[in-house]
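quick one if you have a minute, typing this from the bus. theres a chain ive been looking at and ive put its sequence and its fold in token form underneath. please have a look and point out which stretches look like helix strand or loop to you. anything you notice is useful, everything is just below.

***
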Amino acid sequence: MTSAISVTDLTVIRGRTRILSEFNLEVESGAILGLLGPSGSGKTTIMRSVAGLQRLTGGSIKVLGTLAGDKSLRSRISYSTQDASIYRDLTCSENIDYFAALQGHVSSSTDEILELVDLSRNRKQIAATLSGGERARLALATALVGKPEILILDEPTVGLDPLLRRDLWSLFHRFTDEGKTLLVSSHMMEEADHCDELVLLRDGSILAKGTPRELRTQTGVENMDAVFISLVEKP
């Protein structure tokens, strides 16, 4: 398979703090790659870099064969931040309509997008009155406007109950069946089995890469929390 995202020797330094150092990553087209690790491990910095929003100290990133941040990618990738990027004074449907207007075209109707994230009954509700989980799903809905080829999702299931998490992961796999590529971050190791490939991170460094099965085989343990701990404590 071809790479949808290719990160080469990415280095990011803020002030005197080195966030990432010569970080390398390949994300295959039509796959879900999970960035897993605790807060402060570099997940968001990697995602911002791929989205073209982070100043790089060194290295390069190509997205769909084009340098990250190029204006030609604006309609081809979508980035949903951990803090819901929505307008709290607009209704759910108005948020979708606004982001569609920014795109200049609509590939799916507002109702179709809200149905995907189980917000149909909230379509006329002001975003400020939504629960945390509902706001997270609305942020995901705005990222789906225009049917992007790559979705960059920072902690998309945080704060959601198990049923909603299950439904969202089912939706993510539907996206890959349609040929989309997903870069998804999480601090919850139990999310690992939903991903095709994993990158485990700690303090801006890669602990390990591979499929969930490969990482279990490498460490000799089944529980993904135990896999992570085993890799951290490895001599």
